[in-house]
């Protein structure tokens, strides 16, 4: 259970669970699993794996999933907008394989069009360690809660 604190998670008390159940709007709760890493665990949430799915009708569950996915799409749209307007905001970061290809192609084309000697090209894929830990979780929760 030590990994919960490390990734800013905690188990809800019985009182907190009951308070959530009494609300008119019941938030989506998904199953959480952990993938082992060299120095700990990576939390993975499957949005479609709704906890206590039996409590909701299929129609209600799908409606909640649609609402949740719409919120995520809206947040992603904001990130994409910021990425196009403020390119320095994300530096050389890319959003997926298509962006990697575009950046790589632009770089290679520029080098090939120069009249110098053609160098060997190398591609390095890296995983930034502790990237998840740098997210300001209080701000993230505030944004998602709106």
TrEMBL record:
InterPro entries: RT_dom, Telomerase_RT. Keywords: Chromosome, Magnesium, Metal-binding, Nucleotidyltransferase, Nucleus, RNA-directed DNA polymerase, Telomere, Transferase. Residues 16-146 form the Reverse transcriptase domain. GO terms for biological process: telomere maintenance via telomerase. It is an enzyme of class 2 (transferase). It is found in: Nucleus; Chromosome, Telomere. Its EC number is 2.7.7.49. It comes from the Eukaryota. GO terms for molecular function: metal ion binding; telomerase activity; telomerase RNA binding; telomeric DNA binding. It catalyses: DNA(n) + a 2'-deoxyribonucleoside 5'-triphosphate = DNA(n+1) + diphosphate. One of its GO terms (cellular component) is telomerase catalytic core complex. Telomerase is a ribonucleoprotein enzyme essential for the replication of chromosome termini in most eukaryotes. It elongates telomeres. It is a reverse transcriptase that adds simple sequence repeats to chromosome ends by copying a template sequence within the RNA component of the enzyme. Belongs to the reverse transcriptase family. Telomerase subfamily. This is Telomerase reverse transcriptase.
């Amino acid at each position: 259970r030590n990994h919960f604190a490390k990734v800013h998670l905690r188990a809800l008390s019985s009182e907190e669970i009951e308070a959530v159940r009494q609300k008119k709007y019941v938030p989506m709760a998904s199953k959480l699993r952990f993938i082992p890493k060299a120095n700990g665990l990576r939390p993975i949430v499957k949005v479609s794996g709704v906890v206590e799915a039996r409590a909701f009708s299929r129609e209600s569950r799908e409606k909640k999933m649609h609402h949740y996915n719409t919120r995520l799409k809206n947040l992603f749209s904001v990130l994409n907008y910021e990425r196009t307007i403020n390119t320095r905001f994300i530096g050389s970061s890319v959003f997926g394989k298509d962006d990697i290809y575009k950046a790589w192609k632009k770089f290679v084309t520029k080098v090939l069009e120069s009249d110098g000697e053609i160098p060997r090209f190398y591609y390095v894929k890296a995983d930034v360690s502790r990237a998840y830990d740098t997210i300001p979780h209080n701000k993230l929760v505030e944004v998602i809660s709106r």
